[in-house]
Amino acid sequence: MRFNKLDLNLLVALDALLTERSISRAGERLHLSQPATSNALARLRTYFDDELLVQQGRTMVLTPRAEGLVDPVREVLMRIDSTIAEKPRFDPGTSTRSFILLVSDFTTTVLMQPLIEQLFQEAPGVQLHLRAQNNRPVEQLEEYGADILIIPEQYASPRHPSVTLFEETYLCVTWEGNPHVTNALGFDDYLAAGHVVADYSGARHIPAFDGWFLERFGVKRRIEISAPTMAALPSLVVGTHRVATVHKRIALRAVQLGLPVRIWEPPLEIPPMRQKLQWHRHRDKDPGLEWLRERAMAVATRI
């Protein structure tokens, strides 16, 4: 099919080339040989009267014209997929569809087990693939790399629809043998203690909670242990005099698992965290995703 003299099949090749910025990798993604991919690039260069990709050292970079095509081309393809390629009906009882969810370790710990159990009862053939979020999770969603993103409200994108799954408050956790915290955890105790925190960035900067804490109280917590997981924090205070400020469900789970810890109400008022479920705006009417969103929201009311 052609539109304005452009072979629309070339749009798929263009999207792959713009994303991969490599003829060989784009060919692998398209299941085409390198000569066939090079030929597609040559035709695209002729149509747009632009080089699109140019060699710079050992890598290929996009021209300004190509940079301007990245989002429009991807949006066109996603619109086609959501309005034409998607089946109009979804039968969970017989479906073998795969869904990709971008989730944190917190979401995996508190939501995924009951959700997977519920889905298995209704749709035993449906597959869920849980993926870790990188430092730009909304871009992962926009690049069509996931069906659903579950993320705190402050990081959700206003460009795409979302719903609140649940709210989460905080508790503090200390080792039950900590001699400095026996009857209550006061604010002075909190400041005096070393802290165990979650840091998902892999870079040295102030985590989100500490930025809020510093702005609110004008002091910094003394962070002595950081880990790339919220779920493990209660275990990391064991045998120490440190404190961890964690999501309430994580703290209660640690007690239920028999960890030698004690939990305390925080000695300061911490705003609750609202966990959002987000999806791409062009997939809003996807019947499979509608079903999955409804089930996730129903399960979230029970956790």
Your description of this structure?
The chain has helices at 9-20, 23-30, 34-48, 64-85, 105-122, 137-142, 187-192, 208-217, 233-236, 248-256, 287-300; strands spanning 2-3, 6-7, 53-56, 59-62, 98-103, 127-132, 148-152, 162-168, 170-175, 194-198, 222-227, 243-247, 261-264, 273-278. Helix 1 packs across helix 4 (64-85) and helix 5 (105-122) crosses helix 11. It has eleven helices and 14 strands. The N and C termini lie far apart (50 Å). The chain has a five-stranded mixed sheet. A five-stranded mixed sheet has the order 11-10-12-9-13. It has a two-stranded antiparallel ribbon with strand order 1-2. 41% of the residues lie in helices and 22% in strands. The longest helix has 22 residues, at 64-85. With 303 residues, it is an alpha/beta fold. Residues 202-206 have low confidence and may be disordered. It folds into three domains: 2-85, Winged helix-like DNA-binding domain superfamily/Winged helix DNA-binding domain (Arc Repressor Mutant, subunit A, Orthogonal Bundle), CATH 1.10.10; 98-166 and 274-300, Periplasmic binding protein-like II (D-Maltodextrin-Binding Protein, domain 2, 3-Layer(aba) Sandwich); 170-271, 3-Layer(aba) Sandwich (D-Maltodextrin-Binding Protein, domain 2).
